[in-house]
Amino acid sequence: MAESSEVKVLGAWPSPFVMRARIALNIKQVNYAFLEENLGEKSELLLKSNPVHKKVPVLIHGDKPICESLIIVQYIDDVWSSAPSILPSDPYDRAIARFWAAYLDEKWYPSMKGIATAQGEEAKKAVVDQVVEGFVMLEEAFVKCSKGKPFFGGDQIGYLDIAFGCFLGWIRVTEKFNGIKLIDQAKTPQLLKWADRFCQHPAVNGVMPETEKLAEFAKILMAKMRAANPPN
């Protein structure tokens, strides 16, 4: 285990983006302090460490703050280079992994969030179809990136595994609340198997929230959102 008493992660347990930093550190076997943030009343340390976005996660290495989850993962991979690599070594494979990670954050994740806010069954079905279409594309990406191995990164969890796998808890909550299957045997059999392998990995196991606990948090979150934005 690497000696890293100066490593801290500012975060909140339900955040998929915070999970990315924690999984990357676990893969590198870096000791770190997890400082839980109350997002309703952000700490001075968070505001000082991330004055631009004022959000988690923040990795603090020594006295240096690093912000934005995918940038943090790349930083961890660069700094603790003696441990297994997270980003692919091949430039093309690295570019493809970054492309799909950007797709997840910029296009797929906003659609996923849209399931909870869609008004009416027809609108919800349209958003669900869009999300499932994304999963089908990610199924194809998995086949190409994994090259017959267990993870997007090959034999071990890599950059795209972390970028995508951090959402699995929220995917399960979305399935539970809406009575649907987003990852299933019929359309995405490889992703279904990958999801199980990812969640059982030692670097992930202690970080991935339990579905029931996350569902309870989601109910509270949605109640607050409805209170803040009452229907006209």
UniProtKB/TrEMBL annotation:
Alphabetical UniProt keywords: Detoxification, Transferase
Stretches assigned to the GST C-terminal domain: 90-217
Classification via InterPro entries: Glutathione-S-Trfase_C-like, Glutathione-S-Trfase_C_sf, Glutathione_S-Trfase, Glutathione_S-Trfase_N, GST_C, GST_C_Tau, Omega/Tau-like, Thioredoxin-like_sf
Enzyme class: transferase
The EC number(s) this enzyme carries: 2.5.1.18
Pfam families: GST_C, GST_N
GST N-terminal domain mapped to chain residues: 5-84
Family according to the record: Belongs to the GST superfamily. Tau family.
Protein name, UniProt field: glutathione transferase
Originating species: Rhamnella rubrinervis
